Amino acid sequence: MSDGLKITPETALERIFTVIREEASANPAFARRMLEAAGVTVTFTGAVAAQMADPILVASRSDYPAFREAFMTFSEKELKDLAKNFALATQEQIKSVKTKPKAAGLVDLLWEGANRKLAERRLRGSSP
Known about the structure:
mainly alpha; 8 helices
């Protein structure tokens, strides 16, 4: 797809990175794969943070205080959705959370579920 124009390497790279940023914004699964590939600790903020967060990946790279800090900014609904979408807690477990604030108990459920999944993966010999 050449339009006959010659551009600098910097301009070409900027175009490529623009496409990557746009795809990551539109496709949470792609964004999670990119974050995993980066191999760094990420702080989740903003309107789409819950779509890009992977509690299992965060648990694999964090201790409990860092995990808690990463997820305590999420709403109860977002935490419940993460627990459900990643199969980290049952509906009964979610309903049984009685902590004040409730988000703290939901984060604990995420932590426990994520660590359970990591242990299962280690037993099967696969990576996080």
